[in-house]
Amino acid sequence: MSVSAMLKITLPDGSVREVAPGTTPADIAAAIGPGLAKAAIAARVDGELRDIGRPLEQDSHLALVTSKDEADALELARHDFAHVLAEAVQALFPGTQITFGPSTDDGFYYDFAPRDRPFTEEDLPGIEAEMRKIIAANKPLVREVMDRDALIAAWRAAGETFKAEWAAELPEGEELTVYRSGDWYDMCRGPHLASTGRLDPAAFKLTRVSGAYWRGDQKNAMLSRIYGTGWLNKKQLAEHLTRLEEAGKRDHRKLGAEMDLFHLQQEAHGSVFWHPKGYLIWRELEAYMRRAIDAAGYREVKTPQVMDARQWETSGHWGKYRENMFVIPDEVPNVDDEGPLVSDDADWMALKPMNCPAHVLIFRQGIKSYRDLPLRFYENGCCHRNEPHGALHGLMRVRQFTQDDAHIFCREDQIVEEVRAFCALADRIYKDFGFTYSIKLALRPEKRFGTEEMWDMAENELRNAVAAAGLNTPEYGWEELPGEGAFYAPKLEWHLTDAIGRTWQVGTIQSDRVLPERLDASYIGEDGERHRPVMLHRAIFGSYERFIGILIEHYAGRFPLWLAPVQAVVATIVSDADDYAKAAVEKLRAAGIRAEIDVRNEKINYKVREHSLAKVPNLLVVGRREADEGTVALRELGKEGQSVLSLDDVISRLANESLAPDMR
C-alpha cells in the first residue's frame, strides 16, 4: 500500500498517527499501550461517538473513551442494557415482538408487544436473571449495515411487524444498521460496547412495568414497557437506589396529601385543587416575588386568558404549538338536540399557552420612545397547555399553571446589562431557597424563525451577559447546548440542584428579535425613526405549581418557617391548661405567626407524633406548670428534646424567624 493511502489520525494531544484504512480505534489503543487497550470502551471520531471496533474511513480526529468519561460511558452502558433486556425477553417469552428501547437519564426502557399477555412486575426477577446470563456469555456486539428492503423482509419473515413498519418509513437509500448479539439482532444506529461482557451484571435493576402506546399514539396498539436503571458499577447502582428511596419519601404527591396542601382529580385533568394550607405557601411565594420584581423596576400587568387564533397565527405559535393549545369556537354553541355543537365556519380562539404575545400588545399601546426603555412587564400569568393525560405528573407537569413571567423590552445597547441584572436577581432568589445551580446556554435549533445574523447577535449577547455576571465558570456548571433553544430565541437556563442531588431546569431568559418583528412592536429612536425593541422573555420560578412541587421535595415537607403553612401549634397536656393555650395562640397570631391550637383529649405523645408527621415546625407544649409560670416547652421539628422558655421569648424568636429572607 502506498504511503499516500495511509490515514492521518490526530489524537487529543495533537500527535498524528498514520494508519492503514480499516484500522479501528481499538487497534490504535492497543498500539499506545495494553492499559489503554483494556480501558477503552468507545471512541469519538471527529466528535461522533462510535464503536471501538468500527474501522476508520478517512483522516480524522480521534479521542478514545474510557469509563472515566462518565457521560459517554453511561450512555453506552444503558443502551446496551436495553438491548440485553430485549434479547432476554424474547428468549423467555417466544413470540414477543420488539419495538424501541432508548436510554434515559438514569437508565433505560424497552417497549414490547407480548404474544399472550402484558408483562407484570412478577416477570422482572426472571428477566433480570436471563440478562445476567447474556452478560456472562460476553457476546460480541457486532455492527452490520443492511440493505433497507432486505431488512424489512427479514423483519416481516420473523413476525416483527412493528420493526418492519418503522424500517419501511425510513428514507430509501438511508444506511440501516443492526447490531448482532449471537443470533439475536436489533435495528439500531449505535454505538455499543464491544461485547455484553463489558457490562457490570451487578450494576442494573429492572424497576417497573407500564403500558405504552406504539409510537405514543393512543389509537395504536398498547405495548408493555419495562423500565430499568443502569450504571457502570454496583456502587453507583446502590447510590441511585438510595436516592430513589429518599425521593420516594419526599414525593410531593405523597407529602401534599399528608400535609393537606392540594389534590388532583379526573374532573379537572392536570389542574390543581389548592387547599388552604397549600395556597398559603403559594401566597407567600407570590408576595416574595412581587417584592423582588417591584424592587427591580418591573411593572405588573394582567392579560386575557383567551385570545383570537389570528393573534397566535401572527406570532407563529399557531403553526409551531397548536397541538398543545386548547382551542375554543368563537360562537354560541348549538343548544338543539340535533345538529353539530359547533358550525363549520366558526372562528377560533385559544386559551393562552404563554403570555408573551399579550405583553407585546400592551407595549404597542401608545408611542414608545427610546427614553422609555427598558420597559419590564411582569405577570403572574395563568396559562393552559394541552399535555397528554399520560404525561401529567402531580405538580411537576400540569395543564393549568401560573408563571412568574416577565418580558423586558429594551434597546440593543441595553441587552447585556438587563440580562446581567436578571442573572444577579435569579442568583439571590435561588440562594434564598437554599439551592445551588448550574447555568446553560441553549443555542439555535434546527427549525427556527429569524436570520442567522439575529441568532449570532442574540447568542453572543447572552454569553457576554453571563460573563459580566461572573457565571461562565466551572463553579456554575457553564455549558452550551447546541440545538436546544426555542424556535424564536436562544436562552439561558438555570438548573437547580436539590437537597438529594437531583437537578431541575427552572429559570430562563431568552433574547428574542423574532416576536417584536412578527407582532410589529416598535419605538422611536434618538434619530426619530422607528426601531424594533429586543424582547427578553424571563422567569425565575418557572411556574408556581412546579416550583412548589420542587420545594416540597427539596425540603421533604419541612419548609423554612416563613413558608410553613402552620408555623406553630400550642398543644395541651391537661385540660387545666386549655385557657392558657388559647391565650398563647392569640398572642402568637397577634405577632403575625400562623398558629393553631390542639386541646383534644389525647395523650401528648400522640399529639407530638401527629404534628411531627404533619411537618409542623414548632410545637409549644403546655401543662399546669407552664400555665402558672407563663412558659412553654418548645419542641422543634427535627431536633431532639425540648426547651422550656417564656412564651414572650418564644414569640419574639418565632416572629423574627418567620420573616421571609428578603425582609430580615
Automatic annotation (TrEMBL):
Keyword tRNA-binding included in the entry's annotation: yes
Subunit architecture: Homodimer.
Organism of this sequence: Sphingomonas bisphenolicum
Alphabetized Gene3D superfamilies for the sequence: 3.10.20.30, 3.30.54.20, Anticodon-binding domain, Bira Bifunctional Protein, Domain 2, Threonyl-trna Synthetase, Chain A, domain 2
Pfam families according to UniProt: HGTP_anticodon (PF03129), TGS (PF02824), tRNA-synt_2b (PF00587), tRNA_SAD (PF07973)
Matching SUPFAM superfamilies: Class II aaRS ABD-related, Class II aaRS and biotin synthetases, TGS-like, ThrRS/AlaRS common domain
Claim: Ligase is one of the keywords in the record: yes
HAMAP family assigned: Thr_tRNA_synth
Gene Ontology molecular function terms on file: ligase activity
Protein name: Threonine--tRNA ligase
